[in-house]
Every structure is written in C-alpha cells, then in structure tokens.
Amino acid sequence: MNRKGVRDSGGRDAERLLDDLYATPPPDFVPRREELAAQARTEGRVDDARLIHAARRPTLAAWAANVLLRSQPVASRRFLELGRALREAYRTLDADGVKNLSEQRRSIVSTLSRQAAALAREAGHPLSDAAQQEVASTLQAVLADQDAADRWATGRLQSALTPPADFPSSAAATGAPQKPTRAPTAPRSSGARAKERTPPTSPPEAGTTHPGPQGRQNRRPAASSAARRTRGGRRVDGAGP
Question: Measuring CA to CA, which residue among 18, 132, 147 is closest to residue 68?
C-alpha cells in the first residue's frame, strides 16, 4: 500500500509539473523539460521522468492559449459553458438560441484573443498577427467541437486548433437571408465582340448600288456608257438633250 501511495503521489506530482511546464514560454520549454525529467530520474520516479520527457514544445499560439486558460479560470470556465450551450443549440436547431449565443461568441472570442495577446506580451513574447489569428481559431474550435474543448481544458495544447468545416454559420442556422449574389454574365462570342467594336455603316443613298462585288461590276458599264455619251464634250450615240 505504501508503494502504491508513493507511486500515486509521484503521478500527481508529474501532472502538476506538466501543467507548469506547458505554461513555460516556448523558448525555455526544452531546457525546463530536461531539468524536470532529470530531477524525476534522480528521485527514482522513472515513469514520471519518461512522461515529462515525452512532452512536446507548444507553438507560441498554443502556449498563449494555455496561459489564457490558467490565468483566467473564471472566464475560461464560462467560455467552455458557452461552447456547450452553443453546440446544443445547433444540435436542436434552436434558431433563437443560436442567434443570441452567436452574438456572444463573436464578442467573447475577440475579448479573450486580446487578453491572450496581452499576457504573451507581458511575458516578453508578443504574438505576431498570424499567431493572434491562430489563438482566435483555437477559441472558435473550442466553441464548435467537444474534443477541442476537452483538449484546451487540459492547458497543454501543443499546437493551435482549427474549428470543424461543417460547423454552420449563424446566418445559415437561423435562416437569416443571405446577401444576393449577382448572376454571372454569359460569355460573349468573339463574333459578337467584333460586331460591337465595328462602327455602324450609313445606309446607301437612293440610286446607288451596293458596295459589294456585284455592285462594283454594275458600276463599270454605267461609267463606260456615260463616257461614250460625253466624249469630246459632245453627246454621242444619239443621246437626247
């Protein structure tokens, strides 16, 4: 029994050390992990040493999300409760509930994302724009997916989380009208575009022939006949006055 008690005590100690380890900034994570693992081995806690050594360094965004959870326990608990209520509203197709909870979701995700960025900055590790987006994505995933919520609740995220693609938007769930999209214009043929670029021609005057090939042939005999009638300044071929 005493041996079991020692083993249980060591396991609890390892869990506490892991909690502290994942609150360690990523640049200091590996040295701190090796220090804790070596200490456990020295104390004869081989299983604990193995467990600690297996911990993987989190990304900066995941670390910020872990710090947020531990430094804001009340807000984090309420956030997890909001996620459960939101998923239940989607599951039961409660349109009013989805609408109200979705409004809270946008506000709370924005607030918590800013708090995480502030905590990281105070710790000397400011987040880039991309890392801040990853924190927001993680919080969205926590609201949308129970598995993501469970993982964040441990405070030991190793990487940012992504919300599921099939989680519906608030507009789709509430039946809100979508903004109409403009129907695509059918592509025009090259002939139609060429016709638009060609300037319109004036209609032929009365008494003139069509400028086509046949029209040019018709003008030649008429011109020759006129030349014979006026050759030498006198009308010929019996033309009348």
Answer: 132
The answer to whether the beta carbons of residues 59 and 193 sit under 8 Å apart is: no
For the packed helices 95-122 and 73-91, what is the interaxial angle rounded to 10 degrees?
150
pLDDT in tens, 5-19: 334 445 668 899 999
23-41 b/e (C-beta count within 10 Å ≥ 16 → b): bbbbeebeebbeebbeebe
Q: Looking at this protein, which amino acid is placed at residue 220?
A: R
Q: What is the mean pLDDT of residues 108-133?
A: 96
Which residues, 6+ apart, have CB-to-CB distance to 116 below 8 Å?
64, 65, 67, 68, 127, 132, 135
Check residue 233 and give its pLDDT.
Answer: 47
Provide the mean pLDDT of the chain. 76
CA atoms within 13 A on the CB side of 104: 15
Cα-Cα-Cα-Cα torsion 145, 150, 153, 154, nearest 10 degrees, comes to -140
